[in-house]
Every structure is written in structure tokens, then in C-alpha cells.
């Protein structure tokens, strides 16, 4: 395991994952008719009202709150985060790491206030795509959708090379087996996740729930034994402190921590595939955000408890890659660590599956809206899944594996760049969505009156300011997010900002040449 973590290059960006969503065309309910004017308006035109229609592709599932929360948690790969990311965070922030998690949790809980209110007022199964469209218009919505699709597919591509490095290290070093080329392992995980994503979401949810329970148990064992061990008094004990804006690297630390939360958009993306969405989605959103924040804050605090609050930063700097291994070996023994190594690989698989489901539903949404080929909007007749979209994501990953293998690219650096650039794209989308919530409720006073001012204006505005600060941190620390600098950094940054512009221009072209498709943008209730 130590060998594997070393090869991970300590790229914190790799830990940032997240999301997914379902889509539907249906007759509007009385509540939906009350908000249809704004939902279907194009702000740039002053508002177009669509004709209601029946029928359309529908995804099906039966997820409850627990399965939905576990699906979100899987996005961030908890065991991978605790073993590989938090030691890097400690290297930056030391004894302030737990408090940084809690502060980011508060920010995203505030964001969730407007997020869930928007979900009730705009019940379209399009996630941020639908929200940006409702608030900022169809052109901005399509730009956001392309950015989201790009971001999630890139984030998910961390898994094939990362899994390959991990498994190859375990096979050669622990099992003394053959050294197999990384791309075979990479293709194997792509085939596995695609086979699961092809089927009904309930199967993926059961797999993710099982893996997450095992991962959470491992981290809980680490937390309990670390606190029971007791932090060395001469090393500062188990205390932690609040960060200050003048602290070195505090901005970078906040940026990396936000990346651990990205998957909670899944709660609205799976709208058609959960039981009782009006109750399940808001509850799952708050539980997921709070659980992720507290879970990782406790794990970071457990590191402080074991090494001592004043010594943890130095320990992380001296043995970042092997910090978790060293702690667990001392606390529970080497045999238990071998089990953790295997679960680390299932953690990567679970994260990849969660992200693939998210990306597939974005493609499904765009296919259903006819913005992309309509075949992407097909629903499997038996599994009731977006099978064409799921296979398309897997196919893109497989092609990328073959391409990078042919170019001789090292998998050690490949996954960091993919995850880092994808994370930044989704951060920009979240910022746009937070602005869209404010604009939507400001323009749609009737919908705003259903909710309180705190839920529709104050909380979304505070979240937009906070997320704007995070995006600023991401821009100025972009090379660290990718683990690279120079031409590669510039290229990914240009692509990230070019995609929403391209989507905006494409939507404007559709408005004139294909108005029927234009009216569908944003999962409109046609």
C-alpha cells in the first residue's frame, strides 16, 4: 500500500469527485404549472412559454435516502481520500485541517438551502443544467451542460490509470506476481463499471452501498483507535485550531477540501430514480453534505490525535505517502493493512461507477433534449437505464486509455491532470448554478413567495459569494490542482472556459435554425 500511495504523486486534485442525474418529459402538475413561465423562459428573449406535451424517455429506480447518500459519498472515494488526500492536506494546513473541513461544510450547507429550494420549484431532472437554464436562460444552460459533461467525464477518467497503478503495485510488490502493462488493468475497470452502469441504477446503488459501508468501517476503526491511542502531550495532544486568512497555503487547502464534496449534485440528478423525490432529495442532500464534512473532519482530527497536533504537519511532510499505512500498522497491525489495500482498490472502482452514472445522465439529458444525438437519450427497455449514454462514457474512457498508452504517457501523472481539470470545470458550474438560483427567485417572485427570503435570496447569495472565492482560488492555484504547469495547464484552462462559450453560441444557432430543439434545452417540461 505504501508503494501504491507513493506512486499517486500526492495529487490532491485526484480526490475531488462527484454527481449524476435523471431526466423526464411529462405533463406538468398543478405546482409545476405555477412555475412554468419562469422555468421555461429564455432570459435573453424575455420569456418563451412552451406547449405542454406528454410522453418521453423516463429513467426508473427505487433508491431511498440511504442508497442516495452512499452514492454521493462514493463519488469522493472515502478510503482513498483518507489515505491519500488528507495527509497532503495536513502538509498544507497542519492542525487547522479539521476546522477547514467544517467551514467548507457550512458553506455548502448554505448552498444546499437554495439548491433544494430550486429543486422544489424547478423539478426538472437535469441537475445544474436545468437550474442554470431556469435562472440564466437556455444559452447559458447549454454552456453549463457541456461544461458539466466535460468535467465529470474528466474527473471519472482518474480511475482507470489510478486503479492500474494501485493494482499493479499490489500484484508485483505484495503478491510477487507479473508486471502487467497498466492499460490492461485500466481497461478492466472501465469494462466493469460500464457493465454495472448499463443496468438499472438499483444494482449500482447496492454495489456502492456495500463498498461504502466497508470503507466507512475501516475509517471508523482508524478514528477510534487513533483517539484511543491518545495524542502525545508533548506533541500538542488532540487539539486543532481555526485557520486564518494569513496562514500559508490556506487558500489551496480550502480548494482541495471543496473538491471532496462535488458529488452531492447527484441527489437531484437521480430525481426519477429515487422513491418520493420531494422528500428524499432534500434530506439526502443535507445528510450527504453534513456527513461528508463531519466524516473527513473526524478523520483529519484522528491524524492529529495519533501524531500530535503540533507534530502532524511535520509527520505528513516527512512521510506523506505512507502516513496512513504507518498509523494503521502501529494501531492494528500489518494484516489489517493488507485488507485496507484491497478495499482501496474497490474504493476507486466505486468512485468510478458513481461518476460514470453522473456523466451518463448528463449525456442522456442532452440526448433527450436532442442537443446531442438522440440515441444518447434512449432508455433500456428492461433495465430502464441510460444504457447508450453509459456505454458512450465507458467507450470514451477506453479510447483515452488506448490513446495515452500509445503515446507512452505515464499513468502516475495522467490521473492527476484528468481529475484536476475536471474538478475545476465542475467548480465553475457550481458557481454559475449559485448565481442562477439568486436570479431565478429574484425574477420569479411568485415562486419565491412559496419559500422564505432566507431560502431564496439570502442563502443563495451568500453561497454565490463563497463559491466565487473558491473559483478564484482555483484559478490562481490551477497548476497545483493539475499537478503540472506550462502548456498542459494553459490548454486545459482554455478548454474549460471555451466550452461554455461554445455551448452559448450553439444554443443561439439552434434558436434560429432549430427552435424545437432550442425550446427543449434545460430539460424543459414540454
Low-confidence stretches: 1-55
Query: Overall mean pLDDT score?
Result: 81
Distance between the termini: 52 Å
Envelope shape: globular
Radius of gyration: 22 Å
Number of strands: 0
Tell me the structural class: mainly alpha
Quick one: biggest sheet?
Answer: none
The helix fraction, in percent, is: over 70%
Alpha plus pi helix count: 23
The fraction of residues in strands falls at under 5%
**Secondary-structure element order, as H and E?**
HHHHHHHHHHHHHHHHHHHHHHH
Q: How would you characterize the overall build of this protein?
A:
With 526 residues, the protein is mainly alpha-helical. Helices cover 71% and strands 0% of the residues. It contains 23 helices and no strands. The chain has helices at residues 2-7, 30-39, 65-75, 78-93, 97-121, 128-136, 138-156, 159-174, 182-198, 201-229, 250-259, 266-269, 277-307, 312-318, 323-332, 334-368, 387-406, 411-443, 445-450, 453-476, 478-482, 487-513, 515-520. Helix 10 (201-229) runs parallel beside helix 13 (277-307). The chain is globular.
Amino acid at each position: 500500500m505504501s508503494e501504491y500511495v507513493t506512486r499517486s504523486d500526492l495529487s490532491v486534485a485526484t480526490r475531488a469527485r462527484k454527481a449524476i442525474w435523471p431526466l423526464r418529459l411529462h405533463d406538468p402538475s398543478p405546482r409545476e404549472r405555477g412555475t412554468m413561465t419562469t422555468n421555461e423562459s429564455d432570459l435573453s428573449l424575455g420569456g418563451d412559454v412552451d406547449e405542454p406535451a406528454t410522453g418521453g424517455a423516463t429513467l426508473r429506480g427505487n433508491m431511498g435516502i440511504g442508497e442516495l447518500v452512499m452514492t454521493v459519498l462514493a463519488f469522493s472515494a472515502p478510503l482513498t481520500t483518507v489515505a491519500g488526500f488528507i495527509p497532503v492536506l495536513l502538509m498544507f494546513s497542519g492542525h487547522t485541517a479539521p476546522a477547514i473541513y467544517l467551514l467548507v461544510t457550512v458553506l455548502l450547507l448554505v448552498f444546499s438551502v437554495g439548491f433544494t429550494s430550486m429543486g422544489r420549484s424547478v423539478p426538472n431532472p437535469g441537475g445544474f443544467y436545468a437550474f442554470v437554464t431556469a435562472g440564466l436562460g437556455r444559452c447559458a444552460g447549454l454552456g453549463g451542460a457541456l461544461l458539466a459533461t466535460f468535467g465529470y467525464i474528466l474527473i471519472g477518467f482518474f480511475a482507470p490509470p489510478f486503479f492500474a497503478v494501485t493494482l499493479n503495485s499490489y500484484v508485483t510488490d505484495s503478491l510477487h506476481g507479473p508486471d502487467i502493462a497498466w492499460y490492461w488493468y485500466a481497461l478492466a475497470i472501465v469494462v466493469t463499471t460500464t457493465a454495472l452502469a448499463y443496468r438499472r441504477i438499483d444494482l449500482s446503488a447496492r454495489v456502492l452501498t456495500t463498498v461504502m459501508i466497508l470503507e466507512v468501517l475501516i475509517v471508523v476503526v482508524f478514528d477510534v483507535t487513533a483517539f484511543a491511542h491518545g495524542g502525545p502531550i508533548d506533541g500538542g495532544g488532540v487539539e486543532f485550531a481555526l485557520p486564518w486568512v494569513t496562514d500559508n497555503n490556506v487558500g489551496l487547502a480550502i480548494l482541495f477540501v471543496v473538491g471532496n464534496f462535488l458529488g452531492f449534485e447527484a441527489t437531484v440528478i437521480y430525481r426519477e430514480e429515487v422513491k418520493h423525490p420531494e422528500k428524499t432529495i432534500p434530506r439526502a442532500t443535507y445528510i450527504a453534505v453534513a456527513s461528508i464534512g463531519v466524516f473527513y473532519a473526524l478523520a483529519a482530527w484522528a491524524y492529529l490525535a495519533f501524531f500530535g497536533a503540533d507534530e502532524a504537519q511535520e509527520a505528513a511532510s516527512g512521510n506523506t505517502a505512507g502516513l496512513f499505512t504507518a498509523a494503521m500498522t502501529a494501531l492494528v497491525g500489518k494484516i489489517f493493512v493488507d485488507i485496507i489495500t484491497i478495499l482501496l482498490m474497490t474504493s476507486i472502482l466505486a468512485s468510478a461507477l458513481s461518476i460514470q452514472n453522473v456523466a451518463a445522465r448528463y449525456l442522456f439529458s442532452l440526448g433527450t433534449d436532442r442537443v446531442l444525438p438522440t440515441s444518447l437519450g434512449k432508455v433500456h427497455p428492461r433495465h430502464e437505464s441510460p444504457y447508450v449514454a453509459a456505454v458512450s462514457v465507458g467507450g470514451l474512457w477506453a479510447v483515452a486509455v488506448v490513446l495515452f498508452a500509445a503515446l507512452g504517457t505515464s499513468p502516475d501523472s495522467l490521473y492527476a491532470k484528468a481529475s484536476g481539470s475536471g474538478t475545476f470545470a465542475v467548480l465553475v458550474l457550481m458557481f454559475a448554478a449559485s448565481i442562477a438560483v439568486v436570479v431565478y427567485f429574484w425574477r420569479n417572485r411568485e415562486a419565491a413567495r412559496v419559500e422564505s427570503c432566507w431560502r431564496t435570496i439570502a442563502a443563495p447569495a451568500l453561497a454565490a459569494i463563497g463559491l466565487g472565492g473558491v473559483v478564484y482560488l482555483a484559478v490562481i492555484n490551477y497548476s497545483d490542482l493539475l499537478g503540472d504547469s506550462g502548456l498542459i495547464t494553459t490548454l486545459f484552462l482554455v478548454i474549460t472556459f471555451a466550452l461554455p462559450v461554445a455551448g452559448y453560441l450553439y444554443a443561439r444557432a439552434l434558436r434560429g435554425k432549430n427552435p424545437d430543439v432550442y425550446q427543449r434545452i434545460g430539460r424543459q417540461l414540454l
